[in-house]
Structure formats: C-alpha cells, structure tokens
Records
---
Amino acid sequence: MRIESVDVLVCSPGRAFCTVRIATDDGLVGYGDGTLNGRELAVASYVADHVAPTLVGADASRINDIWQYCYRGAYWRRGPVTMSAISAIDQALWDLNAKALGVPVHRLLGGRARDFITAYPHCTGHTVEAALTDAAARLAEGYRALRVQAQVPGVPTAYGVARGDEEYEPASSVLPDVEEWDTGAYLDFLPELIRATRDELGYGFELLHDGHHRLSPSQAGWMGRRLEPYRMFWLEDPTPEEDQRAFATVRSLTSCPIAVGEVWNSVHDCQHAITERLIDYIRIPVTHGGGLTHLRQILALADVYGIRSGLQGASDISPIGQAANFALDWTIPNFGMQEYMGYPEDTWRVFTPHYRLEGGVITLDGTPGLGVEFDEEAAARYPYEPRSLPVNRLRDGGMYDW
Ligand code: CS2
Ligand code: MG
C-alpha cells in the first residue's frame, strides 16, 4: 500500500469543488474534499506543488504519521489553505484504508453511536411570509430542525437569501459582489422573524439562525436576550470568529446557545473557547479542520467541556466532505446537529452518494470507504469556473465583515 500518486481535480458541476485523489501501487484509490470557497486553486497548488511530491512512496496505511508529517513537518502551520489541503489528503487516506478493509469509515472510528444523523436545512425568503412558507414545507417533509433567514428590510442583499428566484449560493460572481449592511436594521428585524416563526409554526422543532459574524459582543448579547423566549437551538456566529474571548461577553449577557467554528481550522483556534465553555456547539467541518484525524481530536476536547457538534455542511463542502462529516457524526458521543444545505443538480452528475437524506435524517448503506463515488470523466465535463464570495460595506462605504 505505497502511495503512487496524489492528484488534485478541480471542477465546477454547478459550483466549484477541489477534490484530491490518492492512488496506491496495489490499485487502491481514495478521494478527499479540500474545497475552500473562492480559494480552490490555493488549496490545489498547496497539495499539488508542495505536498504531493513528498508523499509518493509513503505507506498509505499510516494515516496518523502522514498527518503529522503534513502538519508538524511543515514550518508554516495552520490556516484555512493549509488545513483544507491536509484535510483532503487525510480524507482520501481514510477512504482508501476503509476500502482496503471493505468497511465504511465509521467502522474504523469505532462504529455507530446512534441510529441516524439529524440534519437541518436552510429556510429562506425575501419576506418573513416567504421564509415561513419555506419552513412549513420543510416541516412537512419531516425535518425537525430548521435554520431560518430572511431579507432584512432596508438591506438590499442579505446573507442566506437568494438574489432572484434561484437557489441561494453565496459565491455567485467572478469578482466579489459588493453587498450593503445595516446592523441596526438587522437588530430590529431578527427578533420579529424569530417571533413570527414560533407564532406561526410552534415549538415542535429546533430553530436555528446564522448571524454570519456581524454583531459586536454587546449587540450579540442584546440579541441573544431577545431571542431567549423563543427557545433557539442556536444562534450561529453572532460575532466574528477570530476573537475567541469576545464570546465571554456574549455568554455573560445571554443564555441563548451559541454555535461557532466554520472558519476555524485547528484546535488552537478554539482551545480557549472550548476550555472556558464560551460556546455550545462547534462547527468546524472536516474539510477545513485538518481532516478526520484532527477534527476527531477537537471534538473529543469539546466533549470534555460539554460542547456538542454542529458541523458545517454548506454547499461548498463537497458530498465527499459531507460524508466525512457524517463519519464523525455517527461515531462521536457529543453529536449535536448536522447542517445539510443541499447542492445544485449538476453536482450529482459527478458525485454519487451512498448516504440517504429523508425526513430530515441521514442514514448510510454500509458502502466501504466514505461512501461517495467521484466520476472523473464527468468531472472533466465541468471545467473550473472561478467564483468569489461577496464583500460587505456599510452605508458610508466602510468595509464590514461578510
Ligand atoms: C454558512 C455558509 O453554512 C453556513 O452556515 O455560514 O453558507 C458560508 O457562508 C459559506 O460556507 C461561505 O463559503
Ligand atoms: Mg454559518
């Protein structure tokens, strides 16, 4: 099981994905997801130009050693590009090793700790009414947890809300779109949206909302207090994530549960937030968090502090990365919730999943490996199309967090 090749395949079936393939001299192949939305080629270059040549000839069964070689062996550590690159390699190795043994990856992680994985979708609309219609339709499909977002009155384009009638996709233009942000309008609006959701649809489901890094700690505390009567499952990213200590202020002001982590990449990004119990859910996806090998460690630390998982599952995590999330969701003791945003139709012409999402729950069928097939010929029919995430400016033109 010597590594013969490490290749990167970047394609755009409906949206861009960066996939790493590792092949061994005995004919085994494993795939991993290294998609970093809008920065796909940076990860591709990191893997292809800097790491792939160093792994040829390595024993593919030594996942732990290869992880340490890629992380500890590099002087320049951490960060989204590096950790997504390491993740893609790590996922490909878990996939390959599980295929070699003829078992799903979760069996290598000790087996299932639950019968199904609870998933939440995105419910959204240009008005409160439209968002609630969407939410009601998802409840009718069987979902028992919903993320609800809607257009903020007075803010022309909002995070989580599509521009026209098409599905929402944040990276939708070649150069970054400039969006406009108004914190006051959001502070006025969100408690109304959440109140209307509970008034209209009741309390028989878990309710989530993503603030997308846009409040100060005191504003977040103010907001959390206003949401307390509506029993939120979580308020996500109330403040920018890089300031771990800011969550102490949010915590001191509200009992609303807080979910954070989709832009963290390493245990060192969240060590303080975890050990000081500043958050309730940790959202680092396998794809951006150094792979199964590293995220497992982060989730084990979180468990010691009573923090549960809420792994990011936006459309920019490929179906392979999602399956890697599920391998952990199945096996950890501290599972909380799994995001499942969904994919454009064309994505399914390249990726064939063996997981099922029905009635708001995810199940797997026992296929060896991560359980997602990647069709390289089909991928070649969808050449890479670069897309950027938007940027945010305030009304006065000053830059703001997106
Ligand atoms: C989001 C993402 O999934 C989420 O909660 O915050 O949609 C995020 O905006 C994208 O992953 C950015 O690429
Ligand atoms: Mg988010």
---
Amino acid sequence: MSELDLNNIPKHVAIIMDGNGRWATNRGKDRVYGHMNGVESVRAAVKSAVKFGIKHLTLYAFSTENWDRPQKEVNALMDLLVTTLVNESNELFDQGVQLKTIGDLSALPEECQESLEKAKSKAPTPCTLVLTLALNYSSKWEIISAIKTMMDRGLNSTDIDETTVSKYLATSDLPDPELMIRTSGENRISNFMLWQLAYAEFHFSSVLWPDFREEHFLEALLDYQNRDRRFGGVSQSGN
Ligand code: IPE
Ligand code: IPE
Ligand code: MG
C-alpha cells in the first residue's frame, strides 16, 4: 500500500469478475458454489475501492450472453443477487456506497428488479463510492440502444459527436474507466464497455474471482501506475 501513488489513483475501475465456475469445479463442487463464494470478493473489492480512494467501481455481474447458461445456474445467480442486495444494502449505505446499474433490467425476474430499485434508491451523503453493477449488460446492446434512442429523438448526423454518443450510453453519468481488471486468466473483454474502454489500461489477473482480495486489487493498481499512458501522443517523459 505504501508503494501506491495516491496522486495517481484511477477515478473509475471496471472489473470483469471471472472464474467462479472453475474455482468451484477445482474443488469438486457445483458452479453455483463458486458464485456464492464470489460474493465475498465483491465485498472485499468494494472495501478496497473505498480504502484506495477510487470513486467509481463497476462490476460485470451478468452479461446478455450469460442467459445461455443452464437454467439452474441462471436462477441461482438471480437468487444470489436478491439475497446479497437484501443482506448488504444497509452495510453499503453505511460505507457511503451509492448503487447503480447498467443493463436491461426489464428481463430480470420481478423480485430482482424490486430489490435493485430499493437498493438504488438509498442515497448516502457523502457518497464515497459509486458501485455500478452491469446486469444483463453487453456493450453491443448498449450501443444499439443508444443509436435507437438518438434516432427516435430525431437527431441529425451533424448533431452526433463523441460527447453525444457518450451521453446516450448507459454510462452517461460515469467517467470512462482508466483501469479494467479481468480475473481468471482470460485475456478478452467479452462484450464489456467497448466504447468506454477505448483508452483504459487492462490488467489481466490469473486469480479466480472468489480468491480476489485487496492484495490483488493493489497489484492491479501498481501495474496501472507503471503504465505510460500516451493517448496517441508521445510519452510525458519525452521518450
Ligand atoms: C464469472 O464466473 C461469473 C459470471 C459470469 C456470472 P464464471 O461463471 O464465468 O466462471 P468460469 O469462467 O466458468 O470459471
Ligand atoms: C464475462 O464472463 C461476463 C461476466 C463476468 C459477467 P464470461 O465467463 O461470461 O465470459 P466468456 O464466456 O468467458 O467470454
Ligand atoms: Mg467465465
């Protein structure tokens, strides 16, 4: 922690929480056991983000493609979401965490939608962290939805620039993530924030999500702080 440059903390970190199934399979258990244990890592990631002074944490929790999983697993994930929200929302509020979501919630079971709306309606002051859950989210869905809304509102091609598109995305009130972390050793982004990650730094960790703790988060931040972010220009050091 002492190695961390507190003047160079990303404002927004996005995480693809991956590897729950393999974590469970490695232990001879059902995949759902992995998701249950992944909740502890979510708790730890939120605490770490608050501790490191990160203002926005976005967690990819369920993609539009994850409906293709066995019904039993999908149901268990939805149940887990409800239980976690019910159990954790007071604790999140006490920590000053504001919950948000991105994704098409209308396809989620009624009970999930209700729990989410209830948890999101609590607005802590001061707000220390905005925690955004990407649920039934995919970047292609989001971009198509943005295009449809722009067309429905009668925008002309001359009205459209980067700022306009950003405004019509589900993340309109979030800054773009400076850092994206994916666990489990998979080096891909699986339809996650294609637009917003245009200039993000990527940190791929081999740790499976249920094992992800503060030390791994710190490792990702230190890796980020060692990057030379050029944004198409030249290095600040002139090299
Ligand atoms: C991530 O873990 C959780 C979700 C996608 C909901 P996985 O369930 O994808 O775990 P692996 O990748 O199969 O190990
Ligand atoms: C990405 O993980 C989605 C979430 C973490 C919610 P997946 O496990 O679904 O991605 P793929 O199938 O390995 O690309
Ligand atoms: Mg996976």
